[in-house]
Amino acid sequence: MITSFHPPIRTLMGPGPSDVSPRVLEAMARPTIGHLDPEFVRMMDEIKELLKKAFKTENELTMPVSAPGSAGMEACFVNLVEPGDKVIVCQNGVFGGRMKENVERAGGEAVMVMDAWGSAVSLDKVAAAFDAHPDAAILAFVHAETSTGVSSDAKALCALAQERGALTIVDAVTSLGGTELRVDEWGIDAIYSGTQKCLSCAPGISPISLSAKAVDKVKNRTASVQSWFLDTNLVMGYWGGEGKRAYHHTAPVNALYALHESLVILHEEGIEKSWQRHAFHHQALKAGLEAMGIGFLVDEANRLPQLNSVIIPEGVDDAKVRSTLLSEYGLEIGAGLGDLAGKVWRIGLMGSSANRRNVTLCLSALESTLLGMGASVKAGKALQAAEQVYLQAS
């Protein structure tokens, strides 16, 4: 007989989802009201304003898509890419490849700029791609590559695109709320993210923001947007404007309560302080892992604080370690993807998961598990090194 589902308690330190704040969980349990109720519409406007603060933008078209981050990605591409458009796509991990798929499905031509997994996008290669394809209409890249933990220079890449007269589409699924991101100052034209990473919200919603230039391109398309559901011309009848809203779809009411609460929490902390918190706890985790003898995939200059790809020690059974952490400690860390499968673990410090308790748990549980399997790691050093970072800050 199937009965009610009661999930186990986990500490989520993988590539997402992250731990969801109790305040956000409580918000999801509030009474459901209609998606055109005046009070719900009022809350929608507050979500838009809070998202603007998180993205650091004044873009009018800033809203949550009623689906996960992958739908936010698709929304940006199907609205901005027309058949025949040439798009320079940067790939240095899994998600640049998904950008390519979206370009081609929208009828565009993808010009690929390839960099090694774990390396930042090369500005020189992008400049060379523009030289070879001066008619490129869009530059697309991942700001924070979730598959590797590498950060690329979004500010410099957007400046380069502007010089060449191209729009930009930026994947900020893992960066929003966790690392520096300035949409207006950097000149980003279209950006998408997810709720389940550094916003510490439940999965299922994708915040997006489009600049005035991007909106102008959408409004002046010669071909219809291939997706009815994601067509911003239609969706903004529900999310945009003043007063009465036009019905487009039944919004996920309780999930949007959750997003609202998570953005309130972020606003209370302050976006810059959130960036600093992620960086601080990363330093403690880094000190502990390195003291244990575990190294990082990404060089320090381009390393994400909220997504740490670490090298699995030689001879260690990747799956067995992760299984043991989950079963004995209730701790989830992530496996490597693609070419990095079996070579790295991805340890997340995202949103409310970025805290001292989680850093301590991760280091002690990982050390104990590895020593129990006979791995060649240094015993008794990790927690001391992490505590030193915390003591120096106190």
Automatic annotation (TrEMBL):
Q: Read off the PROSITE patterns from this record.
A: AA_TRANSFER_CLASS_5 (PS00595)
Q: Which InterPro entries match?
A: Aminotrans_V_dom, Aminotrans_V_PyrdxlP_BS, PyrdxlP-dep_Trfase, PyrdxlP-dep_Trfase_major, PyrdxlP-dep_Trfase_small, SP_NH2Trfase/AEP_transaminase
The entry's keywords: Aminotransferase, Pyridoxal phosphate, Transferase
The UniProt entry, under Pfam families, shows: Aminotran_5 (PF00266)
Q: Which GO terms describe its molecular function?
A: transaminase activity
Q: Which residues form the Aminotransferase class V domain?
A: 32-336
Q: Can the keyword Endoplasmic reticulum be found in this entry's annotation?
A: no
Which cofactor(s) are needed, names only?
pyridoxal 5'-phosphate
| SUPFAM superfamilies per record | PLP-dependent transferases
The similarity annotation says: Belongs to the class-V pyridoxal-phosphate-dependent aminotransferase family.
UniProt xrefs under PANTHER family: ALANINE--GLYOXYLATE AMINOTRANSFERASE, AMINOTRANSFERASE CLASS V
Name-wise, this protein is Alanine--glyoxylate aminotransferase family protein
From which source organism is this entry?
Answer: Neptunomonas phycophila
